[in-house]
Predict the structure.
Amino acid sequence: RDGHRSFLFSGDVYRRDTVDARHYFCFHQMDGVRVFSWEQLNVTAHLDAVPLVLANLRETLSGMVKEVFGDVEMRWVESYFPFTEPSLELEIWFNGDWLEVLGCGVMRQRILQNGGLSEHTGWAFGLGLERLAMVLFKVPDIRLFWTQDPRFTQQFKGLLESGRKSLAFVPYSKYPVCYKDVAFWCPEDLHDNDVSEVVREVAGDTAEDVQLVDAFTHPKTQRRSRCYRISYRSMDRTLTNAEVDEMQWRLGGQLKAKL
């Protein structure tokens, strides 16, 4: 409405998510949009504009990733987002695995029509800023961005003013992990994120990882059970067996009550 056809904006995101070193229930995201008129593209319909806009999206965002991360291996993966079609994810090879750094796609035409741009087609992307920092500064665990431990925060003091991108996080003492399993009969519509949400409510940031390690269906009753392995580890100190056992006991009660 103000005439902008390409822009960036950022904000906080809160959602249920997997419990592991790369996912967190709260993170910061930057979104970007670029809109083309059909006249610019020399087309008369949205469907004709889609391949041209998609090609521009790929060229622009792959160029951005190379500018930020250097000459890294990357790949495009088909995906689904409610506001774009087609939708893609851009992944880079990081720490021996593929890491999603952004989701993107061609904006659904109705969105632009509702904004008064009926003869336009555009693309949009969303980039997790913590993921960006993890790769740039070799931070192994997303939970570290929420710690107040000076051993972490002091390493980045003055970084913004300097404009440096070459700083590499130096790990400090790694505290031991404590594994605990929990198994229970579960409803048919149970999603792993349902379990992760309860784990976060009980254990907070001491829950480092939640993995499904076993699943069973009773041959007669068809009741289903799952076994999850929770990795407990504090970023700042060694956890005692007593406090981990207490969290595990409360977790069992909460899973029974909520699931």
In short: Residues 128 and 244 are 31 Å apart (CA to CA).
